Amino acid sequence: MFLKKLFKRTAEKIDLQDIQAIMLRDRPLPYHGVNVFLEILDTVSAKAFLKEIVPYVTNAKNWWDNDDAWLAIAFTYEGLKKLGLPHSTMESFPDAFKKGMAAHSEKLMDINENAPEKWDAVFKTKGNHIAVSIFAKDMDDLNSKKVLALRVLKKHKGVKLRFQADFDTPIEGNFNHFGFRDGISNPEIEGSGAVQLNSKERPIKAGEFIMGYVNEAGNHYPMPQPMEFAKNGTFVIFRKYHSHVAAFNKYLIQQAKSKDEQELLAAKMVGRWRSGAPLNMCPFKDNAALGADTRKNNDFDFSNDQNGKLVPYSSHMRRMNPRDSKMAVMSDVNLHRIIRKGVGYGPVLPNGSTNDDGKERGLYFIAFSAKAMETLEFLQKEWVNNGNFVSLKNEKDPMIGLNEGKGTFTMPADPLPKRYIGMPTFNTLKGGMYLFMPGIRAIKWMSEA
């Protein structure tokens, strides 16, 4: 509601009533929710479940009004098979989706600490068929929606609850477990009615994220068939990360003497101060007011910092959205953007603690793209775990890269750059999967096909 009052929205040109709301809605603040994974034991029962649950799947009409709880549903390839979709439809999906995320671990650089054999048990089998996500602004709304969904589930014995993953805002004010403001800088989708918060960037063509619309190249990406089934759908990336917050705090203390130096190093690694304020707008000191201002905290490019002395090229923010950076390996940044809806889980570690309490905490990384498998492979291999595109050889992303105690982080400075070595992996992968999230009409078709 805040943005609706402040900004004039653009014209809506995509079918918002058929698109699931999770694609476009911002998480409420604070947010509460649950990801549930279901196993299909009986096709007829599963179709009956879909037919009854689809009226509760939230569409994207008036998506900017996110005060009410909302529900989304998506399917793995194995789940779509269990639903008995036509052979021609199943064959029309991309190979990477058919094989699953674990089968492409080498291409994704999910190796060593992040290898599938080290994932949580729930991600090692093919029993995850349907994923249901619920987001809410308070626990009462969440529990109300959960009761409704469970009531539907209990009526259909051929669908089994397999795994429940609760999530919550880790730190009040929308901060992640590392203490940084979260959820900044999602792309604006052309035709969605979005306001333009970054005056330096234009909205990206809807076809990059939603099937059935024109993409940045002026054509359409390949879609599952029939087209009526794929239209207004998208692919989903789901990855569970365990965050080593104590290791992060310890590394800052080891590498920087004073508290101010530690905070500056943390900001350089991320590209923003903990408040969310971007370094290239306030390079010497955090500005909490700027960090909290949604009109300003993402309204910038790197035209004033092509040497990376304000925001290092290897910082997490600059790697994942280089904007107008001059890169050694040229790439159209808009082709590699994804819509992120990551959420935190687990208890907060006391501020600044260097003692790991052994409890699970981290991030459920949820993202959307019309070519999610291809995009994730590119991001993981080229931008996260390689530095060639910014002339940094094998230097990896300091926050999500596979650094394994051997990582290096370069901070350009005068007269010589500073290099921090011996960096561990701060987020290890505990599991993941690809899903297909259909439009709402397609879910009805699936329940009847």
TrEMBL record:
KW Iron (keyword) present: yes
Keyword Metal-binding included in the entry's annotation: yes
NCBIfam families, per database record: Dyp_perox_fam
Name of protein: Dyp-type peroxidase
Gene source species: Pedobacter vanadiisoli
Domain DyP dimeric alpha+beta barrel: 37-145
InterPro entries: Dimeric_a/b-barrel (IPR011008), DyP_N (IPR049509), Dyp_perox_C (IPR048328), Dyp_peroxidase (IPR006314)
Pfam family, any one: DyP_N
